[in-house]
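sanity check this chain:
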Amino acid sequence: MKFGLYLLRRNIITAEQLVAALEKQQEDLPPLGQLAIETGRMSVRDVFRTLRVQAETAKEPFGKLAIGMGLLSRADVAELLLLQSDRRATLDKALAAIGAFTPREGAEHLDAFRRECERCGALPAVAISRSVAATAVLPRPVMPPPEPAGVVPAAAPAAEPELAAAGV
């Protein structure tokens, strides 16, 4: 979103163009059912079954219905939502798609935005590329290396009662 505000403040785009580009990003997201099929989490038959139930209900979200039907877990839906977010068009591309500027102009504006961010330290370098997608940068969990064969890992310390009660 910071890139969008940068463009607004410099009168490169209007508020209406920013809203239209954000709507375009949302419209162009691949449906969760499509992603569930692509990743092998659901069959085509299960996706259509879920869509049929969705059409008969008050438009419950696909992921919530699939969980309720026992077709996906919460973790599956979370991963599909992350994948969906990763496939979101960047804001400069969405603005070009609605005709706010050409793709080349978008790249130039993005470069200027990055330079300004680096100059004033507004964003860490790693977040700059994702900021144009109007999405947050979420760190990926780091998994510890596997234990060598024959080595028994040490037992994990007991969770604190407050954390266990909270489901953490």
In short: DSSP finds ten helices and no strands in the chain. Confidence is low (pLDDT under 50) at residues 125-145, 151-168. The radius of gyration is 21 Å. The CA atoms of residues 2 and 131 lie 6 Å apart.
